[in-house]
Amino acid sequence: MTVVSLSSAAATPSEIVQSPLPRLKITEIFLSLQGEADTAGWPTVFVRLTGCPLRCGYCDTEYAFHGGQWRDIDDIVAEVLGHGVRHVCVTGGEPLAQKRCLVLLRALCDAGLEVSLETSGALDIGGVDPRVSRVVDLKTPGSGELARNRLDNLPLLTARDQLKFVLCDRADYDWARDMVAAQRLHERCMVLFSPCKDRLDARVLADWIVADRLPVRFQMQLHKLLWNDEPGR
Fold it and tell me: What is its EC number (predicted)?
């Protein structure tokens, strides 16, 4: 089986060649319920890629920073299809840190699946297949990675995408609220505000959103309410 493969993030059309499906380093593939964004609650296959250039202070998937196994993309797609559900989420780590993630996303779309991508927003999302729903996590001051935000991604967002803010405290909330207003982000896509576990009470965040009548969607991580931090759930 062959696909068109991007040899690098900066590949030009003349540099795209026909080649066997390449490999990606994978931490885990598992079936669970989607816990976030607009497909929350749907049975979903998660494909977690290994590696991340960021070090957010609240990261809950540090085990994906290192290790993993190299897998052929056709094998990954076959395993996803074998679970028998239509939703698949490619996540990390930071999945776009592996350039061939773009090939995987396209292959999953070609297989007829509903595909979402969870990305930090620190890397260019412009090359992602337009059939993919991009869930972009814009980093707040409390994350410790504010400077890594690639704001050039914001004009690329469409109604198919979602923009997520994980909030640690009132300062994060004020920053995110002002960012939404200044950039009119709610007019581009769904905007999600989430409380950081153990750092911001969910009820407090909900009250702030209601008081300010923000055009954002409050969300909690369904999978953590059900299974806490159990790996593979």
Answer: 4.3.99.3
Asked if residue 58 belongs to a known ligand binding site, the reply is yes
Long-range contacts of 147-150 (CB under 8 A, 24+ apart): 148/53, 148/54, 148/120, 148/122, 149/121, 149/122, 150/121, 150/122, 150/123, 150/124
Q: What is the DSSP letter of 200?
A: S
Q: Cβ contacts of residue 107 below 8 Å, gap of 6+?
A: 3, 21, 73, 74, 77
Say if residue 217 carries a ligand binding annotation: no
Q: Is the pTM of this model over 0.85?
A: yes
Known binding residue 158? Answer is no
Query: What does the pLDDT look like over 157-206, one tens digit per residue?
Result: 999 999 999 999 999 999 999 999 999 999 999 999 999 988 999 999 99
Residue 196 counted as an annotated binding residue: no
33 is in an annotated binding site: yes
Q: Is 34 annotated as a binding residue?
A: yes
Q: Tell me the fold of 2-9+20-227.
A: TIM Barrel (3.20.20)
Residue 91, marked binder: yes
